[in-house]
């Protein structure tokens, strides 16, 4: 499953990031890396952008970036 498959309010663990080094480094600088939990905070109408929360950081991602992040859905405790 990829990040763009999730809906608002869903939580998932990052399994893998399938991106080039530049994008991977940019995401890592925001705390988006393997093993981290993220929560989808919102999506645009056509799901062209997503707002996610990783730790205490809110990040907006384009759909094509979200499709490169493999996740595994988890139930929030």
Biggest sheet descriptor: 5 strands, antiparallel
**Residue share in β-strands:** 35-45%
Q: What is the third-level CATH name, the topology?
A: SH3 type barrels
CATH C-level: Mainly Beta
Q: Which structural category fits the helices and strands?
A: alpha+beta
Count of separate structural domains = 1
Instruction: Work out the helix count.
Output: 2
Weakly predicted, low-confidence segments: none
Mean pLDDT: 95
Q: How are the strands of the biggest sheet laid out side by side?
A: 4-3-2-1-5
CATH-defined architecture: Roll
Q: How many β-strands, per DSSP?
A: 5
General description of the model:
The protein has about 80 residues and is an alpha+beta fold. The chain is about 15% helix and about 40% strand. The chain has a single domain (about 5-75), classed as Ferrous iron transport protein A (FeoA) (SH3 type barrels, Roll), CATH 2.30.30. The protein has helices at about 20-30, 65, and strands at about 10-15, 35-45, 50-55, 55-60, 70-75. A hairpin with a 5-residue loop joins strand 2 and strand 3.
């Amino acid at each position: 499953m990829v990040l763009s498959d999730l809906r608002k309010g869903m939580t998932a663990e990052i399994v893998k990031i399938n991106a080039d080094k530049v994008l991977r480094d940019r995401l890592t600088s925001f705390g988006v890396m393997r093993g981290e939990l993220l929560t989808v905070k919102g999506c645009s109408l056509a799901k062209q952008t997503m707002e996610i929360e990783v730790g205490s950081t809110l990040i907006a991602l384009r759909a094509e970036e979200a499709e490169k992040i493999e996740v595994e859905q988890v139930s929030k405790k």
